[in-house]
Amino acid sequence: MTVLVIATLVGCGLMAGIYAAFSVAVLPGLRLRPAAEAAETMRAVDRRILNPVFGLLFGGTAVLCLATAVLGAVLGGTPLLITGAVVSLVGGHGTTVAVNIPLNNRLDRGGEWAAFVRPWAVANHVRGLASTAAAAVLAVGLT
User: Is the CB of residue 117 less than 8 Å from the CB of residue 34?
Assistant: First the structure.
């Protein structure tokens, strides 16, 4: 179980880093550009992030979190391990699927930057904080 939790923790930490990069660099940089240029750049980023490495990282971390939560519950793992995994699944992956991806799709279909950027940024902060919290809780749960 320890190896599984460490892999889950690393995945959550890497996802937190990706979300943080968007929060502290990508979105602030895009906000300096004209709306049409920012929207086109974000569309390009959204298309490019759909690659095997990101897919493995995002999907793999979700699978690891699910395995950590389920095996933790079945094998009597500490509540912290189960909680960390669930926080990532709900706050990180769930927010991505429920909010960020639909906003990306809307923007890709010609949606307006002004209607996109604020809700996307807020959801990105949520998933970033959730992934960071998940990694921290998993780390504490290992001790």
Answer: no
